[in-house]
Design goal:
The complex is a heterodimer. Chain A is of the alpha/beta class. Chain A has eleven helices and 15 strands. Chain A has two domains: about 170 residues, Response regulator (Rossmann fold, 3-Layer(aba) Sandwich); about 190 residues, Response regulator (Rossmann fold, 3-Layer(aba) Sandwich). A six-stranded parallel sheet of chain A has the order 2-1-3-4-5-11, with helices on both faces. The radius of gyration of chain A is 24 Å and the shape is globular. In chain B, strand 2 and strand 3 form a beta hairpin. Chain B has a domain of about 230 residues. In chain B, strands 1-4 form a two-stranded antiparallel ribbon. Chain B has a two-stranded antiparallel ribbon with strand order 2-3. The chains are: A alpha/beta, B mainly alpha. At the A-B interface, helix 1, strand 2, helix 3 and helix 4 of A face strand 1, helix 3, helix 6, strand 3 and helix 10 of B.
Chain lengths: ~400, ~375
């Protein structure tokens, strides 16, 4: 974005200088700076079997700790201090500390747009040049490029967050059972609501399993403590859009919702709830510091759990290529500490639910009916992980879509 | 009675175009501009507490340190070269085509149609179709502002600029709507091209580099030696002269803008089928704007465009490596690139023009 603006401004400067004295057909140039994510990065493709990093003596043999290099591709800039890339980078930092790696063993590529396949490839190739043995791609949109590179560089491990592709050897994906944390947040929301109307700002609609599964788990957590409450969902169709998120939250608040949950990247929904003097549950990071008078608790990620175990397995030579799908048990997901805004008895209720999940309660099990009356799951059965990650295209019975 | 005549006050300074400077002097001044720009960038590097020599070494090394790096640099150069060549005939005609970005995108969109829906065709036929589709897509996007300019006298700078955003949002629409990958379970993305629709590689880099080199030579000959190239120059100098000489100015403008857009469209085709293997919002990624700077700095000479493109690509690729080597914020490399470019452009301005200060006239 910045680069684009820069070249654009320079282009205007030039056109000005060009027309400055040849007034015959002088042109006035407009001033329009439209926002669109695009990084000027160049082209890229490479077959390159001949220039493979000459590190591994055998396929995925152990790597000495001082020789390991880890690449990370971020969609944003971790220096922003909050949000998605920050959370991932905190995980990388945690891994680095846990394993005792030096700074130059971590190769970071920041601000890599996930809509620019050429930029993604260039960034990853620069990690390959540094002879990284494992490269983490944190954004969904990196998936196809990582898949192609994994085929071109079979001796390097490509680990991709949140997608649905993998090859069982050097290309896996990692994600987590964030729905377990959402279930717990639902307990807090269900106990807090007085109007029995809970709003939810959703990034994507019904056909997105990740978002829909999160809403359903949140709704089931609510139902477990408050069977009368309903969840009203408003979709923004964007992962990151503070304005739309705020507008969606406000229309939910106008309907009388008094707790706002969210699957959206910014704190806007929580700030909207706070402005109305009501409450909410954030996402990704603890948003109590952003909306201290409104926030109850947020489902959060501890990516360091995965990064540490993945890099350790590369060092030990125990990398299996399996996909990683961690949850509360592994400590990959959690809820942020309860704020003072929660209703009385919330801590106990959440503890009880957490104990239940750790003891084997799968959230999506037993009698589940969607909001159109279809039977999704029956007593004694549970949804498979494939159903949860790929076929969650229904809303739980207490969910209403606006 | 004396009539007081209000004299028109002369401005403090005004800008005057320099007379033709000799070739050798131009080269000298350009080299001087590069040196001054590097020094200006070096001062910035010092200001952030780094060693300029180390940073510059890392940039040059980052661009060429290995086969992968060199290929990466060339891959950055390909769309930049082709788009700068595309802009050249329009600028030569003094038609300010700021719409290369959109023309690249439209070329990409048209080519993508064939890559997604006619995958069964023989490889060469498919690629030729994609190539032609890219040229037609970009050409049409250039034709529209040319038509309105000749018919209604619209401002082509604004018109071509705004067309960029229409093209960009068209990708967004296609990604989220009709061309969404059916296998992506609801996520908005266009599927990766099948290998059959991917541009072949020559010496490890997609064939776009060869297309770019051929276009550079062809464009050089076209502008310098062909009748049409001469017409473009005449229209650029003065439409009235052209009309007086019996040229059909409207036809020349429309034809040249189609050509300009078509070449940019070819850049888009090379990007989707050679580099990205898909169509995404970042497909042009500002190349259409950077290409304007390249074409202008090269004084619209296709061969010099080639040299300037390589230098630009080196800076771009090297900065990306430098930034992660030194753990600097991406903003630092953007600022550094900005300072270098701005210095070169500012000096280029003084290369072409001189500033005359107001002089006290003696009675």
């Amino acid at each position: 974005m910045f680069k684009k603006l820069l070249s654009f401004t320079l282009a205007l400067t030039m056109v000005f200088s060009l027309t400055a004295c040849t007034a015959k057909n002088a042109t006035t140039t407009g001033d329009a700076t439209t926002d669109n994510a695009a990084a000027t990065e160049g082209a890229a493709t490479s077959e390159g079997t001949e220039e493979t990093a000459a590190t591994a003596t055998g396929l995925f043999a152990p790597v000495a700790k001082e020789d390991i290099k880890v690449g990370v591709i971020h969609i944003g800039d971790p220096a922003d201090g909050a949000g998605y890339s920050f959370a991932h980078d905190q995980g990388i930092v945690a891994m680095q500390q846990a394993l005792g790696l030096t700074d130059d063993q971590i190769i970071r590529k920041n601000n890599v747009s996930d809509a620019d396949a050429v930029a993604i490839r260039t960034a990853i190739e620069e990690c390959l040049e540094e002879e990284c043995q494992i490269i983490f791609g944190t954004s969904w949109g990196y998936m196809d490029t990582m898949e192609q590179l994994a085929a071109e560089y079979p001796e390097v491990i490509f680990s991709h967050c949140s997608g649905y592709k993998s090859n069982g050897t050097n290309f896996n994906n990692y994600f987590g059972r964030i729905y377990q944390a959402r279930y717990l947040a639902g307990v807090a929301a269900g106990l807090k609501t007085q109007s029995d109307k809970i709003g939810f700002v959703a990034a994507m609609g019904k056909d997105n399993s990740e978002v829909t599964g999160g809403i359903n788990a949140f709704a089931m957590g609510i139902e477990s403590v408050n069977p009368d409450a309903k969840v009203y969902v408003k979709v923004t169709n964007s992962w990151f859009d503070p304005t739309l998120e705020q507008q969606a939250a406000e229309s939910l608040l106008d309907m009388g919702c008094d707790v706002i949950g969210q699957h959206a990247d910014t704190t806007a929904p929580q700030l909207a709830a706070e402005a109305r003097g009501v409450w909410g549950c954030g996402y990704n990071s603890d948003m109590t510091k952003d909306a201290p008078a409104a926030h109850l608790t947020a489902p959060i990620w501890n990516w360091g759990t995965y990064y540490t175990s993945a890099v350790q397995s590369v060092i030990d030579g125990t990398w299996t290529g399996e996909n990683y799908f961690g949850g509360l048990t592994e400590g990959l997901v959690a809820i942020s500490p309860l704020s003072d805004n929660v209703a009385e008895g919330t801590a106990d209720a959440i503890n009880a639910a957490e104990v239940k999940i750790l003891a084997g309660f799968q959230v999506f099990e037993g009698n589940i009916v969607d909001n159109e009356g279809n039977q999704i799951c029956t007593e004694g059965k549970a949804l498979t992980d494939a159903d949860i990650t790929g076929k969650m295209n229904w809303y739980y019975k207490n969910v209403v879509v606006q | 009675m004396e009539r007081s005549i209000r004299m028109k006050k002369e401005p403090l300074f005004h800008v005057v175009k320099k007379a033709e400077v000799s070739y050798g002097k131009t080269v000298m001044l350009s080299l001087l501009a590069v040196v001054i720009a590097i020094i200006a960038g070096g001062i910035f590097i010092l200001a952030i507490g780094q060693n300029p020599f180390e940073i510059y070494a890392s940039i040059v090394q980052g661009a060429w340190r290995s086969k992968i790096a060199a290929k990466g640099t060339i891959k950055i150069a390909i769309p930049l070269l082709i788009a700068a060549l595309g802009i050249t005939p329009a600028f030569q005609m003094r038609f300010w085509n700021i719409g290369a970005e959109g023309q690249i995108i439209m070329g990409g969109i048209f080519a993508t149609y064939f890559a997604l829906f006619l995958t069964g065709l023989p490889h060469w036929l498919l690629l030729i179709l994609m190539f032609l589709a890219g040229a037609v897509g970009g050409g049409l996007w250039g034709l529209i502002p040319a038509y309105f300019k000749t018919k209604y006298g619209t401002n082509e700078t604004l018109f071509t600029l705004m067309m960029n955003y229409i093209a960009l949002y068209m990708i967004k629409y296609l990604t989220e709507g009709p061309w969404r990958d059916p296998a992506s379970s609801g996520f908005p993305k266009i599927a990766s091209f099948v290998p059959n629709a991917r541009l072949d590689q020559i010496f490890g880099v997609h064939a776009g580099w060869l297309i770019g080199l051929i276009l550079a030579v062809v464009m050089f000959i076209y502008l310098k030696f062909s009748k049409q190239g001469y017409e473009i120059s005449v229209v650029g100098e003065s439409t009235n002269t052209a009309r007086y000489a019996g040229m059909n100015v409207k036809k020349i403008v429309i034809r040249t803008m189609f050509l300009s857009g078509a070449i940019c469209g070819i850049a888009g085709m090379c990007q989707v089928s050679g580099a990205a293997y898909t169509l995404g919002e970042g497909i042009a990624g500002g190349v259409g704007f950077t290409a304007i700077i390249v074409a202008w700095l090269a004084k619209l000479n296709p061969i010099i465009i080639l040299i300037v493109t390589v230098l630009f690509s080196m800076l771009d690729k090297g900065c990306s490596v430098m930034q992660s080597d030194f753990g600097l914020s991406p903003a630092v490399s953007s600022i550094l690139q900005g300072i270098i470019l701005f210095s070169i452009l500012a000096l280029d301005f003084f290369n072409r023009y001189r500033i005359v200060l107001r002089q006290r006239r003696k009675a």
